[in-house]
Design brief:
Radius of gyration: 29 Å
CATH architecture of the largest domain: Orthogonal Bundle
Number of strands: 6
Number of domains: 3
Helix content: 40-55%
Number of helices: 17
Largest sheet: 3 strands, antiparallel
CATH class of the largest domain: Mainly Alpha
Shape: globular
Length: 415
Amino acid sequence: MSGPLLLPTWEQLEATHPHVVATMRAYLAQVACVLRPGSVTGADLALRSFTTYLAAEHPALQRVRDIDRPHIEGFKPWLAARPGQNKARVTPATIAHRLGTLRVFFTRIDEWGWDDAPPRVPMFLGDVPRQHHALPKALDDPTAAKLLRAAQADRRMLVGVTVEFLLRTGLRVGEYTALAADAVVLIGDTHWLHVPVGKLHEDRYLPLHPRIVELVNAYRTAHVPTGHPLLLPRENGKALDRHTVTRFINRAGSTAGLGHIHPHQLRHTLATQAINRGMSIEAIAAMLGHKSLDMTLVYAKIANRTVAEEYFTVAEKVEALYAQPAQLPAEDLGPNMARLNREHHRMLGNGYCVRPKTMDCQYENICESCTFFQTTIEFRPTLLAQRADACAKGQTRRAEIYDNLITGLDTTEAS
């Protein structure tokens, strides 16, 4: 027996179902050419699980091409009743993975025209249970700040370096621990971090915050001998691993009075901070090394700017339902309301900030991308000058922001 579900080996299953085993192992050999080893292992477990079921419940079935709906419908409750790793039952995620992998197997051998493929694919999309996709568990701003302050104050320098590095770059732990000594490069007047080929088989460059450059240089000067192949090894020269990184993070978290923190939460934290401050989905995808925008779009659910803008617009109107009405003469209502609005709006160089005074803002240098930024036709000359400056400097993204603002003003004026 082998595997977390104590499944028989292929050799054991071959004794009773040689033809089924031959087809499935041929399939695994094919997918091994294009999938990562971990994915092939997952497919192996799923197919062995199904073959184990056939051996137990349908010993007379000898060919994959003879598998039909009754076999699938019997497999689902059989799988759900199986013991899991350290659990009484397999988890819903495991069930979804096993059934999804089995469905792909039948679909692929049908597409490939294999002789042993069933006359029709015996599984449907509805056979695979839908998973609950929770939003990424990011740290909120106050919690992230507490964690960072505690890490910076830790007597072991590497704790502070590790936590701040992950919070400011969003690297996966495996990417962080594998950084080569020459990973920090200077291009123009900006330091960049070369992240090597990793989980998605792609490497990338990230702009590095000057604070990170200082931390890395200070740590390497104090603890890393010349010629060491890694950028940030332990003080004894050995490579960091994910367990040590997790301990570092939770050491700082414990000092800050926080609960358990998973290293990946720091990656989610940076992405959430970035999208809430106006960074584009495309830029976040490039920063995180996502191969598809679908992987990044989950963060858009955290910062839906249209919802936020419309909510606060309506909230100002609804607020009158709950606030105590001011005792003002009827003829003064108009001028007084105008005065109150003027006091609430804070004038900027090219528009107004309508952020409620109770809400803090630490990013006042990107006002044009903020939900609370509003402008009027009187600021059109300033916006035109800012667009011209952006174009002259080749700042395409910045120029687009001003284009949209100016177009909006022109449309409003025309109407």
